[in-house]
Each structure stands twice: as structure tokens, then as C-alpha cells.
Write a structure and sequence with these properties.
- The structure holds 2 protein chains of 2 kinds.
- Chain A is an alpha+beta fold.
- Chain A has a single domain, classed as 3-Layer(bba) Sandwich (FAD/NAD(P)-binding domain).
- In chain A, strands 1, 2, 6, 7, 8, 9 and 21 form a 7-stranded mixed beta sheet that branches. Chain A has a 6-stranded antiparallel beta sheet with strand order 5-12-15-16-11-19. In chain A, strands 4-3-18-17 form a 4-stranded mixed beta sheet.
- The longest helix of chain A has 20 residues.
- Chain B is mainly α.
- Chain B has one domain.
- Chain B is 49% helix and 0% strand.
- The longest helix of chain B has 22 residues.
- Chain B is built from 7 helices and no strands.
- The chains are: A alpha+beta, B mainly alpha.
- The interface between A and B is large, with 41 and 42 residues.
């Protein structure tokens, strides 16, 4: 007998659209989240909480990952409790979407058919998606309206098709630097884009508008303006009266019967006591690495190697976001007093991106899938910025009055304009999730072991885009311009591992994100993505989860 | 010879020895007496800019250590440093660190910064000085936002205002 119609494991961007859609349709929904329930009253701009003591993620001594990196001796695994390299991104109701910056870009039609358009790349497992842009477009629009995306459509060489003329909310307020970026771009003939954001510029949908505190990324939003999964969707789902959200419930195994059907979710409650929930249908959305881990940890009579792993595909083709970062210094002395004061203003956004090289056709460099450049100010966290100043140019520790003069100059004489490059992290056989055979979490379950190999092609594209971004900073007369492109994965931009496709021997999920040979198990986080596109994933995860929710409704 | 006396290159895990118990006494006792003097070298007071004393760096660090706000490894490393520093001071000047002249103290700090362990220790103290300088006053440092005013730092809003909004309280809810 089922306790609920649908049981969702995880409560973030992949989970909440399903919870809301099913609850609004009158189905009984339970959401199991391993983290606590934080809300607007808990979120302050406290660097110690968010970033230095990391209260929104588990202590690595209790829950960690093992990260495999290439070395001269082959692939070497290091537990993150030793390295300090944290692969958690926000474990609480709403998941990591609570702490995103809210850069929201859609994918483009060719992102769904990369293999057909650009052909194979040696050493990469690039495939077309089993759906096209047209199928996802209505759901991108739905996210604009239900999550709340602000922005302004402008003419652009690679503007993706839209079913509405513009965003439902106008852009958030912008810093004076946005106009300077526009001017520099136009000198080069580039097409600067107002960055769409999942941030409400004014109150709507029972949420307050942006307060322009200037601290978005890594911080929870105190007004609810940021379209995190809890604030935008899950709170609404709960208000239907059909959705129960349970924090502190760590699901460690899904039980399945002889037919392969999932029957129950087993979890530890806050007291560590084992509990079980039965449902007609299950949805897993724990973010890519943990979703694979849970399925691998759930063998059953018909799935001896883990749910959805009868063809050895589970955990393969994990992807991150490739690219790099760069920065230029804008000294206040270069500007009039009025301009400098406007530049100093903390709250207004930069909101500028470039997609002129989303698809590259360059006489020298060739024809390639490119990516996105986004401009932003350096993160305002004071302690982190001060800490970076304590080393001199030779890497020696600095202190006393010389350190104080350096701090004064750094904090008071300039602002730092950065760029981030997002390009495809090509899926390869060297980037995947498995279970570690030694390290366990505090409940005794094996932790995820993640190999993080990258394809050298990613670096070439990242460098090409970084060089383009630097031309904008140079034209703006920024000083001390630098950039860095590396194959280190950004832990907060992760997808894949349960790619969807038509062929059950080469994918884990079908086109509707249902596990191929399991009638009542769906995966709705970013795990489904066979390729990632060249933008942050959240909007696509939201849109796809709304799409799958409609398929589940038909299923029920 | 104390750890700072040797040019050692050790992983952090290997740098802890003679673990000191979390202090329960005042700042006029060791290791806090020595730590306060070292902190003042790291961030000296000036007319126009606060130093370790003005930002309450020692009491901030003492609170962190006594309230188990740091890992045991970090606590031990921080509080063991004065013992090593005093060993070196005794060896070179026949007096404990706080009894030396300011120049002698500065010279000893330069010496230990030449060792991997010594540099790590000073770097860690600086990190917690920056926390006392730039975190919310609710945590005991940065009184009357003196650090934010000095560096014209805009900390954003809202800031933690109640005990329930501090990292210690949020951490307990995990």
C-alpha cells in the first residue's frame, strides 16, 4: 500500500517543479530532503555562515566525496575531507538554487543536436538529445513566468526562438559599468546582452522584489526575490495542501521488487533512525553526483548493479561547465568623482553577457561550438578579499603596515570587473561517478567517487572565449587584466551521469526522463543532460522538470 | 628546539604537537598574552587605521577556540604557537617573547616566517584577524563597524542580528 502518490527525493530545481505540478493537480506528494529547512528569516549576508563555516552544506568529516584526478601514476583518489575541495552545493530545502547568482540562459536549438551539427570529436561522447528545442521551449517560458525571470530581449545573431516577445519582468537595476561594457562591445561590433536573471525586480507572486544588497551568489535571499526552488515553487506546492516537505530525511536506498518496480524509499531521520516511505511513483533529484550515488546504492532483484544500471551506463558522462575566469581593475582615479561614486555602488547588477561566439566560425580557429561570456563584479566577500592580500608578489607572507597599505589600496582605490566563460564540458570516459569502496558517510553508506577528467578541446574553446572577453576589458582601459583557463571542474555546475536517450543500452533514461526499464522511477535534476550547453544549467533543469512533470501527470 | 626553529616543510596535520587545552583563563595568561602581542605585530594600531587591539582580535580568537568554532587541529596549532615562539625567544634572548623589545619580537617573527610551519601559523592568525576585522560585530570583533569603516567595506544587509542567525546556531540545525 502506498503512503503517497509520488515520493520525490531532493528538493531543489529538479524536484520542485514536479512537486508543484503534481500537487496542483491534486496528487499527494512527499518531498524528502536530507538538509534542514532554512527560509528568508535565516538568510543574512554573513560571510562566516555562508562561506567560511559553510553552514548550508554538511561537514566533510561526516559526508564527503572522493575525487579522482589524473597524475603521473594514473588516476589518484583523494577524500575531500583531506583536500578541502567541497563538492556540496547547498543541502537544505530548495537545494543549491537558494545560493545561485540567478544567471539564466536558455540553451539554443543546436545545443540539442551537437553531434549532427558539429560531428564527432575524438575522445568525447557527444550525442544529440532525444528531444529538440521546440519541445522544451514552452517550459522555458513557463519558468520565466512561474519562477520569475527578469530581462530584456535584444536582437542577437544567436538569439534562440521564443514564444513570447519579451521577459515577464524588466531587468533589475544596473551599475554604471553596464553602459561602459556596452560602449566597449559596440566599438568591437559585439552584441552585449542584458543577462536574464531569476530575480524579481519588484514584488510579485507573494514574493518581495530585490533589495539590491549586492550579495547574491553563495548567499540565500532574504526577500524571496531570487527564484530559488523553495521560494518560487516549493512554498506554493505546500500551500496546495497536497505536498508534504520533510527535512532531515536522508534517503540511502530505493527498494524494488522482482518486476523492477520501485516500492519504497528507505531513509534516516534526524535522530538517525531508519524509516521507510511507500509511493506509487518515485522521482530522484539530488543533483547529478548524489542521484547516481543513490541509484548505484539501490540494487534490486532485477537490477543487481543498481537501479538503471543494467547496461553499465549509470554515472557515466558526468559533465561540469568548462571555461575560465578573468579580471581587470577599474581604478577610481580614472573616472570623474560622480562616475567613481556610481561605480562603487554595491547593489545594482552588471547584467551583461556576450554570446557572439556561442557558435564559432573563425577563419583561423575553425568552426566549433563556443560559449557564453558573462561580466560581473568580483564577489564582495570582505574576509576572502582581505585574505588574498596577505601574500606579496613573491608569494611571501605580508603583515604589519605594508599589509595595511595594501589592504587600503585594494579596498578603497578600485573596483574589479570580472568575466566568466561558460563552454561545453565535453562528456568523456574519464568523467564519471562510482561508489568508493572504503570511505563511508556518517550513516555507513559508501560515498561517491568522482573522476573529473576533462577533454583538452574544452581548454582551447575556453581560451578562445577568454581572449575575446579580454578585448572588452582592454577597450574599457581596465588595468592588470588577467585570465585563467583550466580543466578544474566548478563543483556547482554539474550535470549528466544519467543521460537520456532512445537507446537503453547507451543511456539511463528515456526521452521523458523515466529510467528505461523501470515503470515508476524518474530522474529530474541535471543528470539527464547528455551535453550541457554553454550556460549555467538551472533554467534548463527547471524547464525539463516542468516538462517531465507533465509526462508524469499523463502517466498517473 | 621548537618547531619554528627548524626550516621544516610539514603538512598541516604534522604540525600539531603538545595540544593545548582550550583556554579558560583571561587574556593576560598564556597562550593569549603572547598571541595578543603577535597579533598586534600582524595588524599594528595606527591613528587612522585600527589594529588588532581595536578590532578585539584576541578576544575574537579566544571565543572561537573556547567555543569549539574551529577544528581541533586548528585549535591546537594556534594555541601551541606561543610555546614554540617562547622556546626560540629563550634560546636567542634568554627571555620569553613578550619581554623582548619590539625589534627583537619583529625579528623573531621574520625568522619563523622563514619556516613552513611558522609561516602557516602566522598566516592562520592573519585569517582570523581578518575575520575579527570584517565579520559582523555580533561575533565580537569589528566593534562599531570599525573595520568596515576603515576599508570602506559595504557588508550588505541584513546582517545577523540575533543569536539564532549566527553561524553557530545555523550549524546546529544541519
Amino acid at each position: 500500500m502506498s503512503d503517497y502518490d509520488i515520493c520525490i527525493i531532493g528538493s531543489g530545481a529538479g524536484a520542485s517543479p514536479v512537486a508543484l505540478t503534481l500537487a496542483e493537480a491534486g496528487h499527494s506528494v512527499v518531498v524528502l530532503e536530507k538538509g534542514p529547512w532554512f527560509d528568508e528569516t535565516d538568510f543574512t549576508k554573513d560571510e562566516l555562515s555562508c562561506c567560511r563555516r559553510s553552514v548550508y552544506t554538511p561537514p566533510l568529516s561526516e559526508e564527503q566525496h572522493v575525487i579522482e584526478e589524473a597524475s603521473d601514476e594514473g588516476w589518484q583518489g583523494t577524500p575531500t575531507s583531506e583536500s578541502g575541495w567541497d563538492f556540496w552545493n547547498g543541502n537544505c530545502i530548495g537545494g543549491s538554487s537558494n545560493f545561485m547568482s540567478g544567471y539564466f540562459y536558455r540553451l539554443k536549438p543546436d545545443d540539442f543536436r551537437l553531434r549532427s551539427v558539429y560531428g564527432p570529436i575524438d575522445g568525447a561522447n557527444v550525442v544529440d538529445w532525444p528531444i529538440d528545442y521546440k519541445e522544451l521551449e514552452p517550459y522555458y517560458t513557463k519558468v520565466e513566468q512561474r519562477v520569475g525571470v527578469s530581462g530584456r530581449v535584444v536582437k542577437h545573431p544567436f538569439q534562440e526562438p521564443r514564444s513570447t516577445t519579451d521577459f515577464p519582468y524588466p531587468p533589475t537595476e544596473e551599475n554604471i559599468v553596464s553602459g561602459w561594457i556596452d560602449a566597449a562591445c559596440k566599438k568591437h561590433g559585439y552584441h552585449p546582452l542584458p543577462t536574464p536573471r531569476a530575480i524579481l525586480p519588484y514584488p510579485a507572486m507573494n514574493r518581495r522584489g530585490c533589495a539590491y544588497s549586492g550579495y547574491c551568489g553563495s548567499f540565500g535571499c532574504q526577500t524571496g526575490a531570487k527564484g530559488g526552488a523553495r521560494a518560487a515553487l516549493l512554498d506554493q506546492a505546500v500551500r496546495t495542501g497536497h505536498c508534504k516537505v520533510m527535512p532531515h530525511c536522508k534517503v540511502f536506498r530505493l527498494e524494488s521488487d522482482k518486476k523492477g518496480k520501485v516500492t519504497a524509499a528507505r531513509y534516516h531521520d534526524r535522530q538517525g533512525k531508519e524509516q521507510k516511505i511507500h509511493a506509487r511513483l518515485f522521482v530522484v533529484a539530488c543533483q547529478a553526483i548524489e542521484t547516481t550515488r543513490l541509484l548505484l546504492s539501490s540494487p534490486g532483484p532485477k537490477h543487481p548493479d543498481g537501479l538503471g544500471n543494467n547496461h553499465g551506463q549509470l554515472g557515466r558522462n558526468l559533465i561540469f561547465s568548462a571555461g575560465g575566469v578573468g579580471q581587470g581593475t577599474l581604478p577610481y582615479e580614472q573616472f570623474s568623482k560622480q562616475q567613481a561614486e556610481a561605480l562603487k555602488m554595491r547593489g545594482p547588477f552588471v547584467n551583461r553577457g556576450l554570446q557572439d561566439w556561442y557558435f564559432i566560425d573563425d577563419a583561423k580557429f575553425g568552426r566549433h561550438k563556443g560559449g557564453t561570456i558573462d561580466f560581473l563584479f568580483r564577489h564582495p566577500n570582505g574576509i576572502a578579499r582581505a585574505n588574498n592580500q596577505k601574500w606579496d608578489d613573491n608569494g611571501r607572507l605580508l603583515w604589519g603596515k605594508p599589509l595595511k597599505r595594501k589592504l587600503e589600496a585594494y579596498f578603497t582605490e578600485a573596483r574589479y570587473l570580472r568575466f566568466e566563460v561558460f563552454c561545453d564540458w565535453l562528456p568523456t570516459d574519464n568523467c564519471f561517478v562510482s561508489l568508493d569502496n572504503q570511505i563511508k558517510d556518517k550513516w555507513g553508506s559508501p560515498v561517491a567517487r568522482v573522476r573529473i577528467g576533462f577533454h583538452p578541446h574544452d581548454l582551447e574553446i575556453g581560451q578562445y572565449l577568454s581572449d575575446k572577453a579580454k578585448t572588452v576589458l582592454e577597450t574599457m582601459k581596465a588595468r592588470d587584466i588577467y585570465s585563467s583557463v583550466s580543466g578544474d571542474p566548478p563543483a556547482n555546475l554539474v550535470a549528466g551521469g544519467c543521460r537520456f536517450g532512445h537507446d537503453p543500452t547507451r543511456s539511463v533514461l528515456d526521452a521523458n526522463c523515466r529510467v528505461h526499464d523501470i515503470d515508476n522511477l524518474y530522474v529530474t535534476d541535471g543528470s539527464f543532460m547528455p551535453t550541457g550547453g554553454s550556460v549555467p544549467y538551472t533554467w534548463t533543469i527547471y524547464a525539463n522538470a516542468f516538462r517531465v512533470a507533465d509526462r508524469i501527470l499523463e502517466h498517473l | 628546539m621548537g618547531l619554528f626553529g627548524a626550516a621544516l616543510v610539514l603538512p598541516v596535520q604534522a604540525q600539531t604537537r603538545n595540544p593545548a587545552r582550550a583556554p579558560t583563563r583571561g587574556q593576560d595568561r598564556e597562550p593569549w598574552k603572547t598571541l595578543a602581542v603577535v597579533q598586534q605585530h600582524l595588524l599594528p594600531s595606527e591613528d587612522h587605521a585600527p589594529g588588532a587591539k581595536e578590532i578585539h582580535a584576541t578576544s575574537y580568537l579566544k571565543n572561537l577556540v573556547s567555543q569549539h568554532g574551529l577544528s581541533e587541529e586548528e585549535r591546537n596549532f594556534i594555541t601551541s604557537g606561543p610555546g614554540w615562539l617562547n622556546e626560540l625567544a629563550m634560546q636567542q634572548h634568554k627571555a620569553v617573547f613578550v619581554r623582548l623589545t619590539e625589534n627583537q619580537q619583529a625579528n623573531l617573527l621574520q625568522q619563523i616566517a622563514g619556516t613552513s610551519a611558522g609561516e602557516d601559523w602566522l598566516a592562520m592568525l592573519l585569517t582570523y584577524i581578518f575575520e575579527a576585522l570584517l565579520s559582523s560585530p555580533v561575533y565580537g570583533g569589528n566593534p562599531e563597524a570599525i573595520g568596515w569603516k576603515w576599508l570602506q567595506h559595504d557588508p550588505g544587509f541584513p546582517l545577523p542580528a540575533t543569536a539564532g542567525q549566527t553561524w553557530q546556531a545555523l550549524q546546529k540545525r544541519r
